[in-house]
Design goal:
eight-stranded mixed sheet; mainly beta; 299 residues; seven-stranded antiparallel sheet; 6% helix; Jelly Rolls; single chain
Amino acid sequence: METLRKIRKIWKSEPTIEGAGVHLKRAFGYHEAPLLDPFLLFDDFHSNYPPHYLKGFPWHPHRGIETITYVLHGKVEHGDSMGNKGVIDSGDLQWMTAGSGIIHQEMPLGDGEGLMWGFQLWANLPASHKMMAPRYRGIVASEIPEVTMNGIKVKVIAGTAGGVQGPVRDVVVDPEYLDVTIPEGSSFTHPIKRGYTALAYIIDGEGYFDHERNAFGHEVVGNKYFDLDRQCECGPENLILFEDGDVVSVTTQGKPVRFLLISGKPIGEPVAWYGPIVMNTQEELEQAFEEYRNGTFVK
């Protein structure tokens, strides 16, 4: 018998500044990561004020992780130590496996009206793959299939929905990454492998992500213990972590909802993390930064 996944915890993304001065909102990061294995961080960079993003993320290293950048509106110029360079445009995705080490930069440009909106997810790599050869995959919007089921639209970036498989495959943590839009008065169910971490990030609109619609059946970060106005309907910039189970169910009433549905296989290993480098031990972390200082970081 299939088990519906309940909501375990809800976060509201919080403003922060990263890179050379990019204003963004962080849904989760260092402190929350132990609950979200294999995922480490999720940022929502959304602004129509260019001074808040044009300074970008100049050259910096990564090791031991994958960074996944998905752009809704605008452009992001990028380059890396492997010689890759180009532009991530509206609807495009960049899936970069840092592996043993890569140095890159990401410079948001916005669109013709100054709007920049995208997301970056970090996924961890197990010890067996942390020093794998770096690789880069640039996926343009036209390569991401969209499935329509009873008015519900699903862009399949990784994993499978409606019998269609996304273009991102052969990734260590077996991720699923879907961009889902549900019209008002509709219901969407989707199977997720038991034991996998599953989360949703709401882009726009409102929906019910727990079939019981129990506003007090889960933890809400930042809410007071006594909260008469607590709602069970979730809205923009909410990050939802699901409990274990077989199926996620989302329903809407008077408004549509658009969200990212992401899942992956937990790694279950120690995490040693400082800045853009994530290893298993403090010694490995120190070695990585020593190599970066002495110019031997890129293998």
